[in-house]
Write a structure and sequence with these properties.
glycerol kinase activity, seven-stranded mixed sheet, FGGY_N, 17 helices, binds beta-L-fructofuranose, six-stranded mixed sheet, alpha/beta, ATP-binding, 21 strands, about 475 residues, rhamnose metabolism, ATP binding
C-alpha cells in the first residue's frame, strides 16, 4: 500500500502554506507544496475601512495547495491520508443555516472589539472572566468581537460562528466542529472544564448554539466532500483531522525540548512566550500580569503572554519599502537591516512592545519613534537604529515574560526554545540569550507545520503517543542552533 502522508494547511497573518509531512523511522520531513500571501484587507464601501480576511481567496489557495499535495504524493508513491488545518486564533466567520458565509471575516486588527470591552465587563467582570476562562485580556478576543457584532445590529440567532480553521474544515467537509485549543482563545471557553462557558454566552445574550460541539486534536472532523476530492485529486477517503488548530498550540507541540524545564517563544507575527503546564493558573496575580491559560494538545495548558512580535519589524519594512518605491529607490533587505542593526551600539532606547498602540497596521517606524520620545528618549530615523530598538525591546520583553511565567506558575526554566520565523533571526536569538542569561535553542522554523503533521500522524498510528516522544521526533529531524548568553 502507498505510504501515508499528511497535509498541513498552515495559514499565518502574512502568508499561508500547504505542506506535506512524511514520517520516517523516528523522523519527520516536510515538503512545502504551495505558498501564498495573506494580509488584512480593507473592506470596500459602504463599510469604511474595516479590516477583514479574504477568506474566499484563502480557501481558493487551500484548494490549489491540496491539489499540489495530491500531485506531490503521487510522485513519491504515497497517498495523502488526512489534512490538518491551523491558523491564527480568535477570528471567526458567521454562516447561516444554509452554510453560506455572511461576508468576509473581520481581522482582529480591526478596532471594533476594543470599543466593546467596557460593555462586556459591565455584564461579566474581568475577575469572573479570568476565573473561568483563564484568558489574557486582549481587546480583540472573540467575546468582544461578538459584542461588536451585536452592537452593529447583527442578528446572530440564526447564525453559527466558526473560528477560521473550523470554517475551512467546514468548507472542506460540510461538518461543523470547534477545535478546543482555538476555542480556548474566545473568552467563552471554560479552562478547567474544557467546555464552552455557556453561562457567558447567556450573560451576553448570545445564542447557546452559536458555536458547534468541541473536538480535541487528533479527533476526525469528517471526510472530504466528494466535489472537493474530485476537484483536488485527493482520494475520496481523505479525512480532515483536528490538530492544534490554533497555530500556537501546534507550534508548542513541536518544541524540540528534551526535558520539562523549558520555556518557549513561538516567534512570528506575535511572540508567544511561556511554559507548558498541566493545570491552569487562575490567581489574581496571574490575571494582573495578563498571562493566558490557553489550551494545548492533550489538554495541556499553554501558560503564556502575547508579546509584540516581528509584526513591528515587518510593518516597519513595509513603510520603508513604500517610501523607497515612491522615491524610485530600493529599501534595504531584511538581511541587510539585521547586519546593520547588529553593528548598532547595545543599550539604546527601548519601547514597550506589548503596547496596544502597535496593534493596528501602518506608519510603524514613526510610531516606534513616538513611543521612544514619549518616554523622554530619542531615536534617529535610520532603519538600523529602529530595527535595533525593536529587537532589543523584544528581547527585554521576552526575558521579563519568561521570568514572570516561571514565578507565577512555579515551573522551573533552564533553557529557552525559540521556534518559528524569529528562530532564524540570529541577532534576536543572541539578544534573548543575553537578556535572559539562559541558553537559547533556536528552531525549527516550521514548528507549527510540524506540530500539525505530528498530531495527524499520531492519530493515524504513525507517530508515537506521548508529547515527549513527539518532541524527540522533532529533535531528531532538526538541528537546533544554540546561543549562549554573552554579558
Ligand atoms: C499567533 C496567534 C496568537 C494569537 C494571535 C491572534 O499567530 O495565533 O497566538 O493571540 O495570533 O489570533
Amino acid at each position: 500500500p502507498a505510504a501515508p502522508l499528511f497535509a498541513a494547511v498552515d495559514i499565518g497573518a502574512s502568508s499561508g502554506r500547504v505542506i506535506v509531512g512524511n514520517i520516517g523511522s523516528g523522523e519527520v520531513s516536510l515538503e512545502v507544496v504551495h505558498r501564498f500571501p495573506n494580509g488584512v484587507m480593507e473592506h470596500p464601501a459602504p463599510e469604511h475601512g474595516s479590516l477583514h480576511w479574504d477568506l474566499d481567496g484563502l480557501f481558493d489557495q487551500v484548494l490549489v495547495g491540496l491539489a499540489a499535495a495530491a500531485e506531490y504524493a503521487a510522485t513519491v508513491v504515497g497517498q495523502i491520508a488526512s489534512i490538518g488545518i491551523d491558523t491564527w486564533a480568535v477570528d471567526y466567520g458567521l454562516i447561516d443555516a444554509d452554510g453560506a458565509m455572511a461576508g468576509p471575516p473581520f481581522s482582529y486588527r480591526d478596532g471594533r472589539g476594543a470599543k466593546q470591552v467596557v460593555s462586556v465587563h459591565e455584564r461579566i467582570s474581568p475577575e469572573q472572566l479570568y476565573q473561568t476562562t483563564g484568558l489574557q485580556h486582549l481587546p480583540f478576543n472573540t467575546i468582544y468581537q461578538l459584542a461588536a457584532e451585536q452592537a452593529a445590529g447583527q442578528d446572530l440567532t440564526a447564525r453559527h460562528a466558526l473560528l477560521i480553521p473550523d470554517l475551512i474544515a467546514f468548507k472542506l467537509t460540510g461538518v461543523r466542529r470547534a477545535e478546543s485549543t482555538n476555542a480556548s482563545t474566545t473568552g467563552l471557553f471554560d479552562a478547567v472544564a474544557g467546555e464552552w462557558a455557556t453561562e457567558f454566552l447567556a450573560a451576553l445574550g448570545l445564542p447557546a448554539e452559536l458555536f458547534p460541539p468541541l473536538v480535541e486534536p487528533g479527533d476526525t472532523i469528517g471526510t472530504l466532500r466528494p466535489e472537493i476530492a474530485a476537484h483536488t485529486g485527493l482520494p475520496a477517503t481523505t479525512t480532515v483531522v483536528a490538530v492544534g488548530s490554533h497555530d500556537t498550540a501546534s507550534a508548542v507541540a513541536a518544541v524540540p525540548a528534551a526535558g520539562k524545564n523549558f520555556a518557549y517563544i513561538s516567534s512570528g507575527t506575535w511572540s508567544l512566550v511561556g511554559v507548558e503546564l498541566a493545570i491552569p493558573v487562575l490567581s489574581e496575580a496571574s490575571r494582573l500580569a495578563n498571562f493566558t491559560n490557553e489550551r494545548g494538545v492533550d489538554g495541556t495548558i499553554r501558560y503564556l503572554r502575547n508579546v509584540g512580535g516581528l509584526w513591528l519589524l515587518s510593518e516597519s519594512m513595509r513603510s520603508w519599502d513604500e517610501a523607497a518605491a515612491s522615491a524610485g529607490t530600493v529599501a534595504p533587505s531584511l538581511t541587510e537591516l539585521l547586519v546593520a542593526a547588529a553593528a548598532e551600539p547595545p543599550g539604546g532606547p527601548r519601547i514597550d512592545v506589548d503596547s496596544q498602540e502597535f496593534i493596528a497596521p501602518g506608519g510603524m517606524p514613526g510610531r516606534v519613534r513616538a513611543a521612544v520620545h514619549a518616554k523622554g528618549g530619542a531615536l534617529d530615523t535610520r532603519p538600523a537604529a529602529v530595527v535595533r530598538c525593536i529587537l532589543e525591546s523584544l528581547a527585554a520583553a521576552y526575558a521579563a515574560t519568561v521570568r514572570e511565567a516561571a514565578e507565577l506558575s512555579g515551573q522551573a526554566v533552564e533553557v529557552i526554545h525559540i521556534v518559528g520565523g524569529g528562530s532564524q533571526n540570529e541577532l534576536l536569538c543572541q539578544l534573548t540569550a543575553n537578556a535572559t542569561g539562559l541558553p537559547v535553542e533556536a528552531g525549527p522554523v516550521e514548528a507549527t507545520a510540524l506540530g500539525n503533521v505530528l498530531i495527524q500522524a499520531r492519530a493515524a498510528g504513525a507517530a508515537p503517543a506521548t508529547r515527549g516522544e513527539l518532541r524527540a521526533v522533532v529533535a531528531a529531524s532538526h538541528q537546533c542552533v544554540r546561543y549562549l548568553p554573552i554579558s
